[in-house]
Amino acid sequence: MEEVLKEQTVKLTPKDFQTDQDVRWCPGCGDYSILKQVHTILPQLGIPREQIVFVSGIGCSSRFPYYTETYGLHGIHGRATAIAAGLKATRPDLSVWVVTGDGDALSIGGNHLIHLLRRNFDINVLMFNNEIYGLTKGQYSPTSPEGMVAKSTPYGSIDHPFNPIALALGADATFVARSMDRDPAHLQQMLLRCYHHRGTAFLEILQNCNIYNDGAFELFTEKATKKEHTVFLEHGKPLVFGEQQDKGIRLDGFTPRVVSLKEFSKEDLMIHDETDINKAMILSRLYEMNDGEHVYPKPFGVFYMRQRPTYEDALQQQIEQVIAKLGPPDLNKLLRGRETWVVE
Amino acid sequence: MAKRTIERLQEVVIKFAGDSGDGMQLTGGQFTNTAALVGNDLGTFPDFPAEIRAPQGTLAGVSGFQINFGSKEIFTPGDQCDVLVAMNAAALKVNLNTLRKGGTIIVNTSGFDAKNLKLAGYASNPLDDGSLEGYNLIRIDITKLTREATADITDLGLKEKDRCKNMFVLGFLFWMFDRPMDYTLQALQNKFAKNPSVLEANVRALKAGYNYGDTTETFTTRYRVEKAPMAPGEYRNIMGNQALALGLVAAAQKSGLKLFLGSYPITPASDILHELARYKNFGVITFQAEDEIAGICSAIGAAFGGNIGVTTTSGPGMALKTEAIGLAVMLELPLVICNIQRGGPSTGLPTKTEQADLLQALYGRNGECPLPVLAACSPADCFDTVYEAVRIALNHMTPVIFLSDGYLANGSEPWRFPTADQLPEIKVVFAEPRTNGTPFLPYQRDERLVRPWARPGTKGLEHRIGGLEKEDITGNISYEPENHEHMVKVREAKVERIADFIPLQTTEGPEQGEALIVGWGGTYGAIKAAVQDLNEQGYRIAQTHLRYLKPFPKNLGEILHRYPKVIVPEINNGQLIKVLRDKYLVPAVGINKIQGIPFTKAELVQRIKELVN
Fold first, then answer.
1. Which among B416, B27, B297 has a CA at the least distance from the CA of A84?
2. What strands, in cross-sheet order, belong to the sheet with B548-550?
3. Residue B277: burial class (beta carbons within 10 Å; 0-12, 13-18, 19+)
């Protein structure tokens, strides 16, 4: 314990988290920015490098552990969440991070993701969403929009996409947030929020694949359009957006409406409440309300957060209860069982 | 009172059969425990339908429990039954072929009414049409007598009283085989402590069954099976899956590591999960995962964290875990994968036994993907073999496949259990923290080709591992052609080198002889009984039974070449035999049975004779 405390006082820098391996993502990939923001926040956590583990599956994003000087496990496709669950169940002392992509987490690994979320291990899940399969070279993904022309959909995708935020809320996640590669300050803030949430933190990070799906998110990332098409969620604050910060989201019953602040005051707007699951559900579908006529912004920030006992805490508690009831382990007693007989 | 005689028998096989709701497993279990406590050697095998409650009275709904107990050494649950208990017409129909000619049938006549006969597909009542001539038929209206015995218990309905039928039968058999009722009375006391009326009804039914034998003058012969000459010591009865669970806990305790089981329910492996879930006070963590893949992947995560990772499953689950097993081979982390084999392929025969997953265990992965494979040979041996599997996994940093099967998993036998200090030590060495700045090399191997195990949380050992091919020593990703070939060979050599750390193969029977019977897994008892029988008849047959299927013990080739004939009986279409022919170029011949049921001694004796003569 003393050792750990001493270590915490040693000041680490982002450079301490770089490995000797060449980063092999395509030049211009959004992953570089995410890697940089993670390396920036890790020294701020106040924990030594050896207490941190990055677990990943398969895909471009899943190369992440090789580039971070902590413990790391590059697993198999879709299973990082399951691997991380076993690690955290047995080693609650570690800070466990899962790095995954839209294909890895929502397609092949969809099952493990929802079960991780409902069990609420204290694990941070960073899902890089580029709405495409990059490593397998350009097939549509479970988050690709309908109609997308990709290698495996030359006539346009007929698949209806997942809404990752709505999915995580539906799976009873206790922390659900969205950020983007092109907003370093916001991303850093969200990463720190993930770390400080006790329970599974699900962070969707919109990430540009400049090779197979370039510009998929430019509406939200480019200066010219960002303010009109994004709304940043802050707990207790009204939902205001627009080039001149002159628009807001107002609830009309359960239906959100875009209103002009020339007609309404800020007090009339929807006030963001991270602890309100119903509001979070509404916000998760906000951008889907774009119908050509009404322009709705895409929300970024923490949609929802609540406290619920973590799996590993409940597990530890149960072990202690059983020990209190049955006594400490006695292997000889266990091997003997209840009924024995002696042969002379 | 009529004169009673007591006849002494060396060995008796009883099969309890009834509707799956008739409580035959419980009855068999009680008879078994009493047999064990009076000192018989024994072997048991339950035979239940895959359906939890198939329609009452149908052939599909018949549940059976077979016990072989004796005053001599017992190796199997027995070929043919001496006594068949049939609680209804369907139970008789399904099991009559397992009864020896002249054997005893105890029937509940109430189970042979028009409806039951129709459901069982009998055109006429076998109890009356002469078709059971040649058997000793004992007819008892068990339903009626049980109701009479419990008549004045007013707060139970007829349905609840009828549930005590099995205790009547048990009481009758206790009388017939001259066994004490004490153990079962105590067990009932424990089971129904909170329900005095149900307890009373069961006790009365049990005693009524016993007294029925005692007072009804038609039964003049009772049987006695004396104590078996067993090695001195303290014994308990144990089932295979139970032994496996205890072996895992014992290995965790002896190694000082935490045990983590990631598992998804599947027949016939689920009982391991149930058993281990009870041992939370041993720090055992059981994680009922969302699927088979998460079962093994969570165990890999636990192993990376420095714990004993285990996953348990059966054939279809093994198929799903395949990719993750490959990952564990690449990561070179300790992991134990238990496959309780059942009839395949696909969903196959979930409740029946087979040993057809050997080739899957040895070869069933993409790429060159070697790992050690061990198989248990009896219910109690599941303890020793899984303990050994954990030892190998931890000491050699490798996933290990442990094979059992439905027959071993649910079968039981007396077990001279060890004490904790009699168990071999399991020494685990983790890589030491380093502060001098020299890089940690996760794939630097020792003389056994074993890489270090670095627990997360250890200072200075931060490292990354994964499923991509690694560069030798550093573990960095490498696609270099020569490096890949080298790593494939090193992983194979590492597993083969384990042969230096396991016992040499032993044989039972003559050093030289007419034939060697080579077996593995659950066939041990049947082969042993058959070989003993043959040698008593003047043959000179030896037996060797393999626990280590990869790597093979170093002297196996020499043993195989010592005999003019090598015979390989297997409950599959010939799998070990392929491996032996491949590796040792021996002209081995197989005896194969693929019916979802174990070999009988008689059929092995006959087939071996045919092959030797």
1. B297
2. B285-288, B259-263, B308-313, B335-341, B399-405, B373-375, B548-550
3. middle
∠ CA B590-B68-B164 to the nearest 5 degrees? 130
pLDDT band at A339 (very low <50, low <70, confident <90, very high): confident
In B486-546, beta strands by DSSP E: 515-520, 541-546
CATH assignment of A2-221, among 3.40.50.970, 2.60.120.10, 3.40.50.2300, 3.90.230.10: 3.40.50.970
One-letter amino acid for residue B173 of the chain: L
Tokens of B265: 């329910």
Pick among A2, A55, A61, A91 to test the B interface (most B CBs inside 10 A): A91
pLDDT in tens, B422-457: 999 999 999 999 988 889 999 999 999 999 999 999
**Mean pLDDT within B215-243:** 91
Nearest to B420 among A85, A90, A332 (CB): A332
d(CA B158, CA B151): 9
| Pair of tokens at residue B307 | 């714990």
Residue B516 has pLDDT above 70, yes or no: yes
Band of the pLDDT at B2, cuts 50, 70, 90?
low
User: pLDDT per residue over B261-283, tens digit each?
Assistant: 999 999 999 999 999 999 999 99
Among B residues 484-523, those touching chain A with beta carbons less than 8 Å apart: none
| Residue B54 confidence (pLDDT) | 79
Touching A: B residues 4-63, CB under 8 Å: 33, 36-37, 39
Whether residue B182 sits in one domain with residue B85: yes
pTM of the model: 0.94
Instruction: Indicate the burial class of B320 (C-beta count within 10 angstroms; 0-12, 13-18, 19 or more).
Output: middle
Mean pLDDT of B455-461: 97
Range of the domain at B331: 236-418
Question: Å from B254 to nearest chain A CA?
Answer: 9
Q: What is the pLDDT of residues A288-331, one digit of tens each?
A: 999 888 899 999 999 999 999 999 999 999 999 999 999 999 99
Beta strands, E only, B153-232:
221-224
3-class secondary-structure state, position A128:
strand
Q: Please determine, for residue B208, whether its predicted confidence score (pLDDT) is greater than 70.
A: yes
Determine the residue of chain A that is closest to B308 in CA distance.
A90
CATH code of the domain covering residue B529: 3.40.50.920
Residues B23, B93, single domain; the answer is yes
| pLDDT single digits (tens) B62-73 | 999 999 999 999
Which two tokens mark B81? 């039954």
Q: Do B342 and B311 belong to one domain? A: yes
A to B CB pairs, distance under 8 Å: 204
> Over 80: is that where the pLDDT of B50 sits?
no
Of the candidates B328, B325, B309, B300, the one whose C-alpha atom is nearest the C-alpha of residue B257 is B309
CA separation, residue B447 to residues B101, B434, B444, B489 (Å)? 62, 22, 10, 15
Predicted confidence band of residue A9 (pLDDT cuts 50, 70, 90): low
Q: Where are the beta strands (DSSP E) in B166-295?
A: 221-224, 233-239, 259-263, 285-288
Contact call for B301 and A331, based on CB within 8 A: no
Q: Which of B246, B307, B457 sits opposite A334 (nearest CB)?
A: B246
Pairing mode, strands B5-8 and A230-232:
unpaired
Q: What is the amino acid identity at position A189?
A: Q
What is the C-alpha to C-alpha distance for residues A62 and A75, in angstroms, rounded to an integer? 8
pLDDT in tens, B189-206: 999 999 999 999 999 999
Give the whole-angstrom CA distance, residue B603 versus residue B606.
5
B297 and chain A: CB distance < 8 Å anywhere?
yes
Chain B: residue whose CA lies nearest to A24: B477
